[in-house]
Each structure stands twice: as structure tokens, then as C-alpha cells.
Amino acid sequence: MKLSDISDRYGKVIFLICSVLAVILFLMISTNLVKQLSAQERERMNIWASATEKMAKADTNADFEFLLNIIAQNNSIPVMVTDAEKNILEYRNYKLPDRIDDGEHVAFSDLTEKNRKFLTDKLRKATGSRSLDEVVLSNPHFIKVEVFPGVNQYIFYEDSILLRRLSLYPYVELSVMLVLVLIIYTAVVYTKKAEQNRVWVGLSKETAHQLGTPISSLMAWTEYLEAAGTDREVTTEIDKDVKRLSVIADRFSKIGSRPDLELEYLNQTILSSLEYMSSRISGKVSLNFHFGDDDHGVLISRSLFEWVMENLTKNAVDAMAGAGEIHISTGREKSMVWIEFRDTGKGIPRKNFAKVFSPGYTTKQRGWGLGLTLVKRIVEEYHNGRIFVKESEIGQGTTFRIELPAKLN
After folding, report:
1. pTM surpassing 0.70?
2. What is the C-alpha to C-alpha distance for residues 327 and 340, in angstroms, rounded to an integer?
């Protein structure tokens, strides 16, 4: 594994760890805030209950104004007072189905049937079939108040609207954080990909430009050698390789921009593209073609597609150490044509099926590890197709599959 791969992997891991830690920290802070506010509301209701109890037991010397002021200060926490038989005696701060004018208080018995049912259902839901003495022991939202000796009332309160909203805040915050992390991660990946594209374009155009001058010079030297009486067979072979260099320069110029796609026939194009390679690979490697009777029309850039086939051939020859078989098959499925390129090489571990197309990935001592990356770029970005490792078995070989849109008749 190369240093750049390790750096990239650890960078992503560090980013994800920092993101998770940030989310956890914000959730802890939010949850703690909700707990503190809940405790404050519980304390306020205890004070409210104590004031209610003292009002009930107060003699003529009690400070009624002070106690009434404490009771009146609760204008946000929904609360109701019941007797031991769960009859509602009083209620405050509930948003009732049938609205009541602001500032107006209607006794429970004078409420509409719909409003009475609304409050009764809330109490029933909180208590169930248990007695209120049992509920007080397990539900902190119930407070028992002794109004007279042997006579108890029960205060039931709910979280205020503010507390309920704050209790949802951590989940909203988590969602926002996750979306933010996703946006940042996507932006980083997109920026990195855009930067790689710029490098590809720049490198390709510069390579095509640099090859232009020596190719022109070699063409002139070939003509000079022919005029000087050099063996015709020698100059012919030199001329083939010079033309080959011209084709390579043309490919690099097209890799740097969007190529024009033309209608070509798949089987014929594959045979043509491997004609040059067949005379330059080891005699111990056999090329086997398995084509159907029907050739398939596809829109491709012929020179770039030939480059794909040549790179796959070189990759297969390297995987077989210069000895083995290469089987190339074609076919059509609905609106897609496919090519399967199978070798009898050393195979690829399943965990590396996607990684083999990454820039810099190579198992060879020499090489840049760009061959399959280039193939993937040409197939997927320039021809709207896809390429993937269909299957591979260690010591048995690998099958690459290319899928391209078929030319509809």
C-alpha cells in the first residue's frame, strides 16, 4: 500500500472521528440542558403545590396575597388538580380544543364536553387504572397535597411547551449535524475529484504536446532513411511505430477534453484494436474471441476504446506473467451491450475489486498504477458505461466486464 493511500484513508477516519465526537459533545450539552430545565420545572411545581397546600390550611393571619402570587406565577406549565377519585377540580395552561379567550378562566364543570373530555383523557392516560397514591410513588409529575387532615388532593403537571421543544432539540441538532457532515464530506470529495480531473486534463494535453515534436522529427527521419536506401522492411516497421506514437498522442489529446462519439461495431473494433497488440505480446499468450453472429452498434470514440482494450490486454499479460489465455466475449442485454475480458492470471482478492481502479494502485514493482484508472475514466465518464470486476479467483484468473449503452435501431 502506498503512502498516499494510507494518508487518504487515515484522513477520512480522522474526519469521521472528529465529526462523531462533535455530535456526541453537542448532544451531551443539549441533553444536560433539558435535564436542568426539567429539574427547575419540578422545583417550581413543588413550590406551587406547597403554596396551594398552605392556602387550603391557612388561617386569618396568613399572607394570602403572597400565596396567591406564587400560584398565579405559573403561566407556562400545564397543570391540573384532582381529588382522590380522579375528579378534576382545577386546571391551568392547557391549550384546549375549543378555544377560550385569552385571560378568561372557565371552571372545569362549565367547560364544553369536548374540553372536559380532552383533560379527562390526559389524566386517564397518565394514571391508567392505578390509584393516585400508587401513581405518586412512580410518576414524578404527580404531587400529593394534604388540604385538610385526612383529605388529599393531587397535582398533575406536564412539561411546558418550551421544555418539550428543547427535548426535541437534540434530535434536530443531530439531524443538522449529520447533514452538515455529509455536505462537508461531499464537498471535499467533489473538490478532490475536480482537482484530479484538472491534473488529468493538464497532464494529458501536455503529454500530447510534448510528443508532437519528436513524432514529426521521426517521420522526417523515416523518409530520409528510405531515401538513403535503408532496407524497406526496417523503415516499414519504424513507420508503424511512429504512426503508433501519433495514435497515442491523439489519445492523450482526447483524454483532456470531451471526445466525439461515433457509431462503431463492437466486434470489429475489438479485433482492430488488438491487431497491434497481438504481434507484440508473448507467443505464450493466446487471444481467444467469442463473438456472436450479430455485431453490436455502439457510440464510442474508437481511438479511446482501442486504448481500453490494449490496457486490459497489458494488464492481463502482466497478471499471467507472460503465459496464459485471454478470452474476450461480447453480447447484448436489452439496451446494453457487454464485453467480458477474462484471463488465466493470478487473480484479485475480493476486497480489492473496487480498489484496482484507484489511481496509484498496482501490484507490480514498476509502473504508475494508472492503467485501470484510465480505463475506468474512458468507459464511465466518456462513454456513459461502467466497468467492474465480475469475478476473480486466486490462482485461476479474473473477469472484467464492460457495459455500454447500445445504439437503438
Report:
1. no
2. 8
